[in-house]
Batch of 2 targets.
Target 1
Amino acid sequence: MAGRSGAQRPNGAMQGKICQFKLVLLGESAVGKSSLVLRFVKGQFHEYQESTIGAAFLTQTVCLDDTTVKFEIWDTAGQERYHSLAPMYYRGAQAAIVVYDIVNQDTFSRAKTWVKELQRQASPNIVIALAGNKADLANKRLVEYEEAQAYAEENGLLFMETSAKTAMNVNDIFLAIAKKLPKNEHSASGVSGPGRRGVDLSENQQQSSGGCCK
């Protein structure tokens, strides 16, 4: 479990500084975006996950050596009718995970489109990770690992194959993003995004006001 309680030392003192970052998940419908977030935030997996409507908002922390990274996560809907809403969620985001399904070639093509859109319209320094989800179905794969890895390297993306079902690399991909994000005083934003929030699945929501790294 990515340290929900690990942000504090045993004596109750906060561990180093706290940085808050906005992270958005993008990808075709049914690739497992919500399942990845649910696994990361609550350590759970539901075989039948309802489609996200609009976007869902969750938070989770990752603890590095001297910094606690708090992710404000926007899990966006993958259906085409919600595409026009996406800029509202990735605008101002410091990180993005673009998800595809390794057993569906079309979702990989769609992921490439999302990457191009982020590179063109999102923050210039956004950290983008590519997640090939449903790695537990590797025997049915239609997207080769090497193909996706080569694409990620060409575009400067973090890349991992993940499985929300088995938890493979789920915490690892968020941790890799946390390590790559800048931790200076002005690097992260305290703005959580659209004022109208979606379903909140996280526990102990303590929203900090203002910026990060206090």
Target 2
Amino acid sequence: MSETSERTPMDWDQRFKDNTTPWERGVLHPAFLDWRESGAFDDRERIIVPGCGRSPELKAFAALGKQVIGADLSGTALAAQKAMLDGDGLQAELIEADILLWRPDTPLDGIYEQTFLCAISPRLRQEYEQAVHAWLKPGGKLFALFMQKNEPGGPPYGCPLEAMRELFPDDRWEWPDGDPVPYPHPLLDDKAELAIILTRR
């Protein structure tokens, strides 16, 4: 699929080639660190990171012994991931594809959602929900970081909590009790990402 097709106006591969990637933290997300410390990943064996880019979380999951899949439209980003994995003698499955059209051979235990949902057009969100629901086994976890943004347009596109409640309905997803934890993004004007773990019914 072309990087600039009707499904995405952004040439993601060129962005990585040019290093015009202001969304990249370059370090493990603090929510990832908190989830890892709390043991939230312990019983998750097969995990996918959609839109993984060059995020270090993919290598961190591999270091935990997980069967991890990294997916992205950018071959440049995936080449960087392979180099990071190879450098530490780690392995992951890397997929260069329109991941919304992909389905695993067997359902997965977890999805780490950090930069994918906020990057795709809002008109693709229903397709996204259908895809991630299909990827997970019942009881599978969606580790989500929902970008909070008031300005129109994107990417990143805002993922307000009310809209996420509609996108991930209670009859298909179990929402946790309590308020989500906000994590400000230091490279995006401290816009908050809300950390929520959803469970597929």
